[in-house]
Write a structure and sequence with these properties.
heterotrimer; A mainly alpha; B alpha/beta; C mainly alpha; B: alpha/beta; D-Maltodextrin-Binding Protein, domain 2; five-stranded mixed beta sheet; 12 helices; C: mainly alpha; MetI-like fold; 10 helices
């Protein structure tokens, strides 16, 4: 592990880049998925096609997506923007389904009670639907965050420097500790983010019991475990 | 009652949001250059040029040895009082050249022979001086080269010592009668003029190709391939006892280290770089690579030490 | 549009059948690595997942494992294993990496498939006198199939994407063309190969989606259809 000790500055710089690239993508995914997921939930006729199309984006292998983004939108191929946009696309693919399922999991009776008390649609969304959809949204955000952080390393293949640099440079120079450090660091950062999001969720949603609530919510979380695990 | 609870929740949300935003802003500030400066690939929009007139952006290929030379250039310039920004690991020249042309990068270490072939596929120059002269002519508007160093780092064909002994090989021409040759190298070698087609045309040697990329030397030693394209400054050649086959017909052009600069490169910085190149010898380059691979030192330390040892810091 | 035309011209050019890696061979290599790895992963993960779902124990461990595995950078794992194992076993090293990546999805598909089954169904089965083993194989496995297939589906797609990257250690597959294209600055090649990779992924996804639908037992289909129609009847408040 001598190598690690001697190269802390390099590792730190790469980590910051990695965090910046992933962070932007994760936040952007959430922000974009919220209205998209709401649309799919509200207009049930659109739901199937919207969710399927968006879900399909996740199946596109990363190297392929970089090329498609460049060909269709003119984004420079070997650029950080390409990486961040691609990561955002993947994040949206995961989160949109999560938003829809989350809104689905809110008991209709609760919503109806809110209407009865006089909440308008905007207030109802922000103070009733969204908070109650929280647990499922949180599960989706955790999956999005961990996969984004791990996936960002592929950026090195299009010349974007982040922790992925440790893999290609380590391979060229045959320095195993360098590659190992990269793998371990990425995993740790992803798990730390996961934990932070979990804790933030507990803080923001103190009403959520540790054991999941409604049937729809349990079903949504289960589907996440199976499909979102990709 | 509900108003109180809502305001408490609101307070929590505000707290978490503030914490996350502060962290994000801090990270964004600490990180390396953002999206403005990315190199433009073909068909993409060009990036903007970097800031002040005295900031020199030094680029490098995705090759650890090239990065060391780039770091030497960068530190030499910093020592002379310039502000330097580093954009390493951009990839192959196919990606770097556009960056030099649009000003995103102003200086990058290159290799005369390969660079010449990039701009002039059909060049017939093979010697050191001819290649350098032809290169100067072949460069497009906005690009120029400074003095070349004596150090070379070119593609070369290598075999294991055992294989060379077995088939009596000293030059590439001797391969003509060896059957079942598999050539390994980077994926793009297949299409390069000095790749399988060049071997056939110049030496009558038939090979099949395997894209072994960074596993090339391992494959050669293990016997998965018989012929390998290895950079001549690679420590691997000595440490694995490989035999570099001679190239009498000039399949490979002489390829010396040379600084490639764009039009945004300040003229007064040229002397600094030329001084560096004057001291960069072939053996010196191999030592630099050895320090990186075998001693596992960082480019930063290697560059600093080299500059000091050569009286340039 | 021009770019895509060039890409398609590249794909269908007869040159694709010559050279060091003919296109059909690249596709075959790609699929071989994918299916081989997913199969091995399935052989490991399905029994474990079923055990977790059937006994209800070990779930937290499985969830934690899935979470951790999702955090592993695929390129890094392939490179690391290659450096540890050496060039002679590089294909095996890659397969191990792919298997590690595929296991979490399949595992999750297996145990969530069981968890999704209505407890009353299990109680009913027990009530008519089925043994534990009978419940496992005649009730839980069939009813859990859709989610299991879902898990296999995401595992396969993830491996397809990773195999594309694994060309970096010289393993061929469709990724070879993308990486070569990047170095050669051959835009038609980059896009052509990328389109192929995407099409491959979409086709596999479609096949699995189909299987997922076919595998749902007839009785369950009928019940879901009834539930869905009642849900549709419930009024969604105008907002």
């Amino acid at each position: 592990m001598n190598w690690v000790v001697n190269n802390l500055e390099l590792i730190w710089g790469l980590t910051l880049s990695h965090l910046r690239q992933s962070g932007i993508a994760i936040v952007a995914s959430f922000v974009i998925a919220l209205p998209l997921g709401w649309l799919a939930w509200r207009y049930t006729r659109l739901r199937g096609s919207v969710l399927t199309t968006i879900g399909l984006l996740y199946t596109i292998p990363s190297l392929g997506l970089f090329a498609l983004l460049w060909a269709v939108f003119g984004i420079p191929y070997l650029s950080e923007s390409n990486l961040v946009i691609a990561l955002t696309v993947y994040g949206v693919a995961i989160m949109t389904r999560s938003v829809t399922d989350g809104l689905d999991s809110v008991e209709p009776s609760t919503r109806e009670a809110a209407i009865a008390v006089g909440y308008g649609p905007w207030r109802r969304f922000w103070t009733v639907d969204l908070p109650l959809a929280g647990p499922v949204l949180l599960a989706g955000l955790r999956v999005t965050a961990t996969s984004t952080i791990a996936l960002a390393t592929v950026g090195i293949l299009i010349g974007v420097e982040n922790l992925g640099y440790l893999f290609t440079n380590g391979l060229q120079r045959r320095i195993i500790p360098e590659v190992l450090a990269g793998v371990v660091l990425v995993v740790i950062i992803a798990l730390v983010f996961d934990l932070i999001i979990l804790i933030a969720g507990r803080l923001l949603m103190p009403w959520v019991p540790r054991r999941e609530g409604s049937r729809a919510e349990r079903r949504a979380l289960r589907r996440f475990a199976a499909e979102g695990a990709a | 009652m509900s108003a109180l609870r809502t305001s408490r929740l609101g307070a929590r949300i505000a707290l978490v949001a503030t914490a996350l935003t502060v962290t994000a802003v801090a990270l964004a500030g600490c990180g390396s250059s953002g999206s403005l400066d990315e190199p433009a690939a073909t068909g993409g929009a060009s990036g903007g040029a970097t800031g002040s007139a005295t900031t020199i952006t030094v680029g490098s290929q995705a090759y650890y040895s090239n990065e060391i030379i780039a770091e030497i250039y960068a530190q030499a310039l910093e020592g002379a009082g310039f502000t330097v920004e580093r954009k390493f690991n951009i990839g192959q020249r196919d990606a770097i050249v556009p960056s030099l042309q649009n000003g995103t990068v102003s200086l990058t270490p290159e290799y005369t022979g390969n660079l010449l072939q990039y701009f002039d596929k059909d060049t017939t120059a093979t010697t050191t001086e001819d290649v350098y002269a032809a290169l100067k002519k072949a460069l497009p508007e906005g690009l120029s080269v400074l003095d070349q160093a004596s150090a070379t780092d070119q593609d070369s064909y290598n075999v294991t010592a055992a294989f060379a002994a077995q088939h009596n090989l000293t030059s590439i021409a001797d391969l003509a009668n060896v059957p079942n040759l598999v050539l390994g190298g980077a994926p793009e070698l297949e299409q390069r003029p000095y790749g399988p087609t060049g071997l056939k045309d110049k030496y009558g040697v038939t090979v099949s190709f395997s894209a072994t990329a960074d596993t090339t030397v391992d494959e050669l030693v293990a016997g998965g391939i018989q012929l390998a394209d290895v950079y001549s400054a690679e420590p691997n050649i000595k440490t694995n006892n490989l035999v570099t086959l001679e190239d009498p017909k000039g399949l490979f052009l002489a390829s010396h280290v040379v600084p490639l600069v764009g039009s945004s490169f300040p003229a007064d910085a040229a002397d600094v770089i030329n001084a560096v190149d004057a001291k960069l010898t072939p053996e010196g380059l191999v030592s630099l690579n050895v320090e990186s691979k075998i001693d596992q030192k960082s480019s930063k330390d290697i560059a600093a030490a080299w500059l000091k040892a050569n009286g340039l810091s | 549009m021009n770019l895509f035309l060039d890409a398609f011209a590249w794909i269908f050019s007869p040159d694709r059948l010559t050279g060091s890696l003919p296109l059909p061979e690249a596709v075959a290599q790609h699929l071989a690595f994918t299916f081989g790895s997913v199969l091995i992963a399935a052989l490991i993960a399905i029994p474990v997942g079923w055990a977790i779902g059937h006994t209800g124990r070990g779930r937290e461990f499985a969830v934690a494992l899935s979470g951790a595995a999702r955090a592993i950078p695929t390129l890094g794992l392939v490179v690391l294993l290659y450096l540890l194992v050496g060039v002679v076993y590089k294909s095996q090293a890659a397969v191990v990496a792919f298997v590690i990546l595929a296991i979490p999805s399949i595992l999750a598909g297996a145990y969530t498939g069981f968890e999704a089954i209505d407890r009353s169904t299990i109680s009913a089965a027990r009530a008519v006198g089925m043994t534990g083993r009978q419940i496992l194989f005649e009730v839980e496995v069939p009813l859990g199939l859709p989610l299991l297939i879902g898990g296999l589906r995401s595992a396969t797609l993830q491996v397809v994407a990773t195999v594309t990257i694994a060309t970096y250690v010289g393993l061929g597959g469709l990724g070879f063309y993308i990486i070569q294209g990047i170095q050669l600055r051959d835009t038609a090649q980059i896009l052509g190969a990328s389109v192929l990779v995407v099409v491959l992924a979409l086709v596999l996804d479609g096949v699995f989606a189909l299987i997922q639908r076919l595998v749902v037992p007839r009785g369950v289909v009928a019940r879901t259809a009834r539930t869905r129609s009642t849900a549709a009847a419930r009024p969604v408040p105008a907002s």
